[in-house]
Amino acid sequence: MMSLFQLPEPEVEINLHTFIREELSLALNKGVILKWSELQNLLPNNSDLIVAKEYYKMLVEDSSLVTALNHLEFTECYLHEPGRIRYQAFDGSKKEVHLRVDKESWQVWLEIIAIKHLQNWNCQNPFVSFRVELNGSPYRFSLLHYKATSSPFSKLIIRNLQTSSLPLNAFGETSLNLSELVSNKSNILICGATGSGKTSLLNSLLKATATEEHIVILEDTQELILPHKFCTRFLAQEHPSYNLEQFLTYSLRLSPDRIILGEMRSSEVVAYLLAMNTGHSGVMSTIHANSAVDGINRMAMMFNLYGKGLNNSEVMNMITRNLDYIIFLQNKKIKEIIKPLGSDQGQPFYETLFDAENFH
To answer: Looking at the domain assignment, is residue 5 inside a domain?
Structure first.
């Protein structure tokens, strides 16, 4: 394991660290982050100000995290426990580096991150996801409180957000012209595991849209890149009293040429599928699934959970009738493309248009 940081501090520093954590925690309980000048006035006499300020910067200014991210090229970082960052490199490999945040500092450090970015994060609201700018680059931070897990430590997952879209050939050679599918306003579903490249591919497909189209983009947190000026973006995270399903329903009144849903997770699948069923074309979205056909089954399962009035066979018929192409990604490469053809008694049937394992 590569180490970027230094060895444990002497005992006098540890005692000073304890004092600083306690003072910061008292302020955090009131929803306030102490400024350095405020903390400095509270420090015991003869405190080492250099040590104190270095520790304060690590906790409040994310100095250790900024340093770590400066050294890494990654798609996602996983901070499951103190002192360690696991990250996924662009080639899909998993690596580790040390982070100078010890177990005593861990929870305070994460709570400071949450409050700094105006997040209501606690044991009653254990999961939050939000956009952060560090080193001039955008990231999505997701915090999971330890009270909601079996782990003794809260977790932080960091996704490296794109600032520009990749060329479509970056996802591997296929037998289909993906730009042409977009130009023809095909309804496309992109599926794969976490970190497989779904959002990256969606950004690249968006770049292939016509500049005169009015595109409505709906997301929880901002990840998609607006392809041109005729776009309307809805961010559910910025409006807690609304959800993506409500935004999606409202967007249908805006005469969109395309509707883009960043990720299908729950009830928004109902409005999304009904939009396709009532004639909207060129819709695109992503979903977590283990194969292209599993993407169909996942959509049907979510519709059955949140929709009303249709049986499974009717739901499956509606999905396979309205989806034109399903693209499955693995490790940032397109592995499979299928075309749904219909269903029989709730079982989908389809044509495999591309299979990476059999492509020459």
So the answer is: no
How is residue 293 written in tokens?
A: 């056909």
Asked if residue 268 is part of any domain, the answer here is yes
Q: What are the structure tokens assigned to 151, written together?
A: 């782990």
Q: What is the pLDDT of residues 264-292, one digit of tens each?
A: 888 888 878 888 887 888 999 999 999 99
| Bridge pairing between strands 188-192 and 215-219 | unpaired
Report how far residue 341's alpha carbon sits from residue 18's, in angstroms, rounded to the nearest whole number: 64
Secondary structure of residue 349 in the 3-state scheme: strand
Instruction: Write down the pLDDT at residue 13.
Output: 61
Same domain, 152 and 230: no
Range of the structural domain that residue 249 is part of: 168-358
Q: Which long-range contacts (CB under 8 A, 24 or more apart) does 344-351 make?
A: 345/313, 346/300, 346/312, 346/313, 346/316, 347/316, 348/293, 348/296, 348/297, 348/316, 348/319, 348/320, 349/320, 350/292, 350/293, 350/296, 350/320, 350/326
Give the pairing of strands 155-160 and 325-330.
unpaired
What is the C-alpha to C-alpha distance for residues 137 and 160, in angstroms, rounded to an integer? 8
Residues 136 and 213 in one domain: no
Both 283 and 267 in one domain: the answer is: yes
* Total domains, the chain: 2
pTM: 0.74
Identity at 149, one-letter amino acid code: T
At 209, list the tokens. 């849209």
